[in-house]
Amino acid sequence: MYDTSLEDSWQARLLAEEQAVKEFTSIKEKYVIDGNVDYPDPDYLIRIGDVPTLPKGNLVAVSAKWKNGKTFFCDILSAIFLGSDVFLNCENLIKQGKVQFIDTEQARNDSARILKTIQAIIPEDRHGDIEVCCLRDADIDSYDEGDDLSRYEFVRKSIEIERPDLVIVDGIADLIYNYNDVTESQDMVNKLAALANKHNCCIVVVMHQNKSSHDKMMKGHIGTMLYQKCSDVFQVEKHGEIFLVTHPVSRHRQSEGLVFKLDENGIPKDGAADLHRQMQLEKQKSEQQVKEILAAVIPQDGTPIRRSDIVEQLTEKHPFQRTRCYELIKQALAAGWLEEVDRTRVRLKRAAADVSSVRPL
Questions:
Q1: What's the mean per-residue pLDDT of the chain?
Q2: Which residue, of 19, 53, 103, 105, has the fewest CB within 10 Å?
Q3: How far apart are CA 217 and CA 209, in angstroms?
Q4: pLDDT at residue number 360
Q5: How many angstroms separate the CA atoms of 251 and 90, rounded?
Q6: Residue 239 CB burial class (10 angstroms; 0-12, 13-18, ≥19)
Q7: How high is the pLDDT of residue 353?
Q8: In terms of Cα–Cα distance, which of 205, 252, 226 is closest to 52?
Q9: How far, in Å, CA of 45 to CA of 40, rounded?
Q10: What distance in Å separates the CA atoms of residue 4 and residue 14, rounded to the nearest whole number?
């Protein structure tokens, strides 16, 4: 005879396993990729050059050193989306929509300047589509009590209730206590990414870069998480009065970036022409410096001289490495000031420069 209790137990376990499989299969359907489905690309908010960017449903990061134009670039992104024509190579791809700009760092008067800056370069009929909030006095703690909210909860409810298309969080590090804490950082980045996906908006977060002048990585563990989770990363660098924006990281296509400067009222404007003039001046200055250095060792009557002899004389006169000396010769040849005689010798090309105006160092 069979043990009925054992058989009942086996059947119950089998039914439980079947039920678990059914429940998991139902859940899995939400996540499995179907090879027969043509999944659409995300909706992009703007175009820079010929590249669409700021994809809805995604996180995007803006990074720079301290006081190097991160907020101004976020102003520009907002303005382009709201129909600004200041940057001729950029345009909005969604003609209607709202921007929620959440400033966590600055005082109210500075947050007000953000609003005024954006409104100064967008059509007047779009002024109502931008809202700027100052969360400097809000708490970091995750609670929802009384008439106040934590910073993250404010961001979450703003997105859920206001339904903006573009959200700027300047900056993300102020939503947590320690940007070097792995758990805190991962939790915050994951929550923002989930918000962007759930509500089909683009969330742009601002994060400082490391202090070293040669290190462009975003700070801390939260910076590492942003590189992993963001669809795009933009970097801003200040060169004198020029701000250079690059687009080094993208899951899709990297744009050519853009260049801006500030007018006399501190309002961003296209800086491409100014950058071109600055680069030309720097090139002329560099070429003149090369001429002045080489004029001390190059025969002024056009007599050929061996490259190795130029290098020997330069290393005696200046604290140059030999590679630097050969680079100077190469630059002078490229500029047309020197010309090659044969594989080892060069000479002054009088037609290319007025050597009488060159003062040897």
A1: 90
A2: 19
A3: 5
A4: 42
A5: 20
A6: middle
A7: 43
A8: 252
A9: 15
A10: 15
Distances (CA, A) of 71 to 104, 106, 273, 279, 303: 11, 11, 22, 25, 57
Token output for 296: 């001390």
pLDDT tens-digit map of 19-55: 888 889 888 888 899 899 898 889 999 999 999 999 9
Lowest-pLDDT choice from 215-219, 226-230, 320-324, 352-356: 352-356
Q: pLDDT tens, 199-228? A: 999 999 999 999 988 899 999 999 999 999
